[in-house]
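Sec-independent protein translocase protein TatC, Micrococcus endophyticus. Tokens?
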Amino acid sequence: MSEVEEVARRTRRRRRRDNPTGEMPLREHLTELRNRVVKAGVAVLLGMVVGFLIYQPVMAELFRPVNELSRDGRISAIAYDTVASPFDLMLKVSLFIGLIVSSPVWLYQIWAFIVPGLKKAEKKYALGFIAAAVPLFLLGMGLGWLVMPQAVQFFVGFTPEGGATLPTASVYISFVTRLYLAFGVAMVLPVLLVGLNMLGVLPGRTIVKHWRITVFLIMLIAAIAAPGADAISMVYMAVPLVLLFGVAIALCLWGDRRRARRAVRREQDIETELASGPKPLHEI
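Tokens:
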């Protein structure tokens, strides 16, 4: 190890010893926030570049359910209401893709900014939350991709005979992105329950006590976010959610028992210390 590296290592140790909680003055907080925002912004911009590259095939796949309906004798197509709409839509869709692609980066930047204000155990919980939330969010988006054609067919099926379905591109893309986000956010909810339980805010027994309401809300979310003519889209969302909530409840109950055992051991240690009486001066 070089002399410069040794000096830097000693400096970091001295800073941790002098400031174990990681407290920073306001100016350093603002500097840290600026750096995190810049890094997250660069990641989103790079993700937008990926969005621009795959924009055409993605839009062709998104428009496919509507275009296929026109082959069945219905008049169905996506329309652009202004000359600049194609360019505006390309920017919005590319930004949406960029946010998805760069989600691990900007989520980590949020976590890294919050970490200095958390305790050691809370830091592990935050890191675990992000490690579980990102794959589940992407999984939910993937399920939304599978369900989207059936949802489009379901709604277009209400068009009266002789009518035409000509949604504007901006309205149609807003519907699709909301559908995807509904799936993604729904998949993250069980992780949020586990996180609240680990922080001691939501006991597992409370979730078990209201399991009927939980199942009802799952079915309601599935019905609203993923309506389908044959209920297949609802099953796509409901089954993974029920399984994830079951795992979340099991983890919450396990966490409750672990904290209860720790509390009992802590009380026993205190009682043992009190029963042993005051220590002699030479042992203090």
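The chain has a mean pLDDT of 76.
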